[in-house]
Design brief:
heterodimer; A: Glutaredoxin; 4 helices; 35% helix; globular; B: Heat Shock Protein 90
């Protein structure tokens, strides 16, 4: 059976790669996922983990993916908000893992908002 | 909820919001009974709030006055031939315990517990999470305190570490009962 001690190989590899993060968060992009009961039941867990994976795989050091509670529009969950310094908040709704990948690719990396997934389209 | 691991995530998220420093998640299967217990040492509830906590129109949140997490898991347990219990004391903590008849047709699958624990480990702060899984006399424990000691300063939410945790939990659960609950 696998044990926690098996982490040693990964730990030793990570030690050589570890980068001390700059404490300055003025350029930090925050990607917020609603994970209350409504979000979780609508599929927020795989969306959150996809965003985490994409940020890690692309080594986006200034992007932080965080969880939050109910964003108040339960029928539109999973909801993802993107907060970029100096810009208006962007809110995506009914996000899936595939859409999450696209948001990272086109919006976070490419700088182009994925307008087709915006919450504005629902109103 | 499509799987019980999502209910576990939902209840444990409440524990984190209640500023618990220790969250213990126990999943056990004995004979035909699956028991899921989530215990925290968070802020707890008043007797008055506890008395109406299974009412979907009772919540601490302010965005909308509905709170479905507890009523949902209660309903799922009762529909699957099981039971629901919640104990809470203000300033001491809360324990939610549910049971399910394993072979009941309406029992949701346990699902991806590894992914639930992995999700909880991101931005965990100083909270310690202990996950215990036991099935018919065999079991294993996962403890973030033990993991952090092994990590020697490497953050718990490093992607490689999170993937390791997910695999550790799911592989060990599969080893124990052949994945029959997953």
């Amino acid at each position: 059976m696998k044990t926690i001690a098996d982490i040693q190989a990964i730990r030793d590899k990570m030690k050589s790669q570890i980068v001390v993060r700059d404490k300055d968060t003025s350029d930090e992009i925050r990607v917020i996922v609603g994970m209350a009961t409504c979000g979780i039941s609508a599929g927020a867990r795989p969306v959150f983990n996809t965003l985490m994976d994409e940020v890690a795989n692309r080594q986006l050091k200034n992007v932080k993916v965080v969880r939050t509670g109910c964003l108040g529009m339960c029928t539109l969950e999973p909801i993802v908000e993107v907060l970029e310094p100096g810009k208006e908040k962007v809110t995506y709704c009914r996000v899936t893992p595939a859409k999450a990948k696209e948001i990272i690719d086109k919006h976070i990396v490419g700088g182009n908002i994925c307008t087709q997934y915006l919450i504005d389209n629902e109103e | 909820m499509r799987e019980l691991s999502l209910n576990i995530l939902d209840i444990a998220e409440n524990s984190l919001k209640a500023k618990a420093t220790l969250v213990e998640i126990d999943v056990s299967m004995e004979n035909n009974t699956l028991t899921i217990a989530i215990k925290d040492n968070g802020c707890g509830m008043t007797e008055e709030f506890l008395a109406k906590v299974t009412d979907p129109y009772t919540t601490t949140r302010t965005t909308r006055k509905v709170g479905l997490g507890i009523p949902l898991i209660k309903m799922e347990a009762e529909m699957a031939g099981g039971s629901f219990d919640i104990q809470s004391q203000l300033g001491v903590g809360t324990t939610v315990t549910t049971t399910f008849a394993v072979d009941h047709i309406d029992r949701p699958p346990l699902g991806d517990v590894g992914e639930t624990i992995m999700t909880l480990l991101t931005e965990l702060g100083d909270t310690r999470i202990v996950y215990r899984y036991n099935a018919n006399g065999q079991g294993f424990d996962f403890d973030t305190l033990e993991l952090q000691q092994q990590l020697e300063g490497i953050p718990l939410d490093t992607p490689e570490i999170l993937q390791f945790v997910k695999q550790l939990i799911n592989e060990n659960m599969n080893t124990i009962n052949g994945g029959m609950l997953l």
